[in-house]
Each structure stands twice: as structure tokens, then as C-alpha cells.
Design a protein that fits this description.
The chain is an all-alpha fold. It has one domain (2-254). Helices cover 74% and strands 0% of the residues.
Length: 267
């Protein structure tokens, strides 16, 4: 379903509703015109059947909305955790000796800038930044190669490596979230359930064509809206409601505000 992100949400939503309603309305008019004898004469018999089908559809769609929203929210929290680890490492580097301190902070600044300018635009189309990958391993390699000379520096190195692991793991999770969506089989199942439920409305005997059409189109529009909502939330870093790089932008804007230079003894 990644092709939907080629269209703005405000365009895709009404188009999806129009398509669902056109198909459902066209089917209803055909059944009323050519299948009059097959329509159920006792709506009280058909009611429990469509009620069961509608309940199953509602449960499945509600479950999918909750799942994709929870994954979307978890992805947003993961981005914040990644940016926070980056900022914490930048501040912790102040306790490391030169030239490691300067090299590390420079690389961390570049990493944050690459996130905003390079990786986030690439993620909108399912890509990732090779520069960010290489720089993350460069930062880790520099810290591993560092030989601390005091217990304090050894503690700082251990803490710094833990923060590198945190933001590297968070990046891997973010890229995984951007590649994994609702399986095609689940989309097919939801479409089949929706089609069956809407088709059941054709079998009711309603004297007014307008009333019958209104009820069928209303149900179709509701289903279409939920489908679009699921699709828009499915890949959290794509589309109009994607998670943005604001945590990294905040890091870029504020990370140097509390820098302390041990050589100068001031901020």
C-alpha cells in the first residue's frame, strides 16, 4: 500500500470514498433492477445475518486501527529516544579528553544534520542514508579505540558506548518500522469482509431507492474512511501525517547551549 503516499491525504481520502461509494452504489442499483426476486422479503430475517457480518467487520477494522496507531505512537517515542541519546552523548563527550571530545561532538553534530537533511527525505520513499550508517559506526569505532587513563574516563567511555548502542538500535528499529506494514493477506481479508457486509445490504427490501442508496453509501463511506486511516498510519515515516525529524532539529538547535569547556572553566 505504499503507493498511496504518492498522493496528498486530502486528495486520497475523498477519492477513496468516491470509489467505494461508486462501486457499492452501482452494485445496489444493478441488484434492485435485475435481482428484484432474489431480494429478501423479510428484513427481520436478514437483520441478524448482516448484524453478525457487520460486527465481525467492525472488530477487525477497530483492531487494525488500534494496532497501527500503537505502532505509530511507538515509532514516535523511538525517534525521541534516539535523539535524546544523541544529545546525552554530545554532553557526555565534554568530559572526555581532546582531541576525542572535539571529534566526537563534530561527528554527532553531523549525524543530527544528516538525519534532518538526508535520511528523513529518503525514508519517505522507503530509503535510508548510507552516510548516517557509516557515521554511526565511525562514532562507535572512535570510542572503542579510546584507551582511558583514569577510572573516571573509563566510566565515561562505558556510558558513552551505551548511548551509542541506544541511538544505533533506535535507528535500526526506526528503519524496520518504515519497511514493515500491514500484510497483503490482511488487506485482502478486510476488503473481502467489507465487500460481503456491503453486499448484504443489497438484499434488504426497502421501498425507497433513495433511502436504500443512502444507507448503503453511508456504510461504504465509513469503511473507506477507516481503510484510509489504516493506510496512512501503516508506515509512520511516509505520507502527510508522517513522523517528522523535529527531535533532531531540537537537538541541533539546543545541544550547544549548555556546553562546558573544561579548559576555560566556563560555559
Amino acid at each position: 500500500m505504499t503507493w498511496i503516499y504518492d498522493f496528498p491525504a486530502w486528495v486520497f481520502m475523498p477519492v477513496a470514498i468516491a470509489v467505494f461509494c461508486a462501486i457499492a452504489g452501482g452494485g445496489l442499483l444493478l441488484v434492485r433492477r435485475y435481482g428484484e426476486r432474489e431480494r429478501i422479503t423479510h428484513n427481520d430475517v436478514a437483520g441478524p445475518i448482516i448484524g453478525t457480518a457487520g460486527t465481525i467487520l467492525a472488530v477487525v477494522l477497530s483492531f487494525m486501527v488500534v494496532v497501527v496507531w500503537q505502532e505509530y505512537d511507538a515509532s514516535a517515542g523511538n525517534v525521541q529516544r534516539e535523539a535524546s541519546a544523541l544529545a546525552d552523548l554530545h554532553h557526555l563527550a565534554l568530559g572526555l579528553p581532546t582531541p576525542l571530545r572535539g571529534v566526537l561532538q563534530r561527528d554527532l553534530d553531523r549525524y543530527a544534520e544528516i538525519m534532518v537533511a538526508d535520511e528523513w527525505p529518503l525514508m519517505q520513499h522507503g530509503g535510508r542514508s548510507i552516510r548516517a550508517h557509516d557515521l554511526a559506526y565511525t562514532i562507535e569505532r572512535d570510542l572503542v579505540a579510546y584507551a582511558p587513563s583514569t577510572p573516571r574516563q573509563e566510566t565515561l567511555q562505558t556510558r558513552a558506548l551505551a548511548l551509542v548502542e541506544t541511538f544505533a538500535d533506535a535507528r535500526r528499529q526506526r528503519l524496520f518500522d518504515n519497511d514493515q506494514g500491514v500484510p497483503k493477506l490482511m488487506w485482502a481479508a478486510m476488503l473481502a469482509l467489507s465487500a460481503i457486509t456491503i453486499a448484504f445490504t443489497y438484499l434488504f427490501r426497502v421501498d425507497s431507492v433513495r433511502a436504500h442508496l443512502f444507507m448503503t453509501l453511508g456504510l461504504s463511506a465509513i469503511v473507506a474512511v477507516i481503510f484510509v486511516l489504516i493506510a496512512e498510519l501503516d508506515y509512520p515515516f511516509r505520507g502527510d501525517i508522517r513522523i517528522g525529524p523535529e527531535p533532531f532539529e531540537h537537538v541541533i538547535a539546543t545541544v550547544h547551549e549548555t556546553d562546558y569547556d573544561p579548559a576555560k572553566g566556563d560555559y
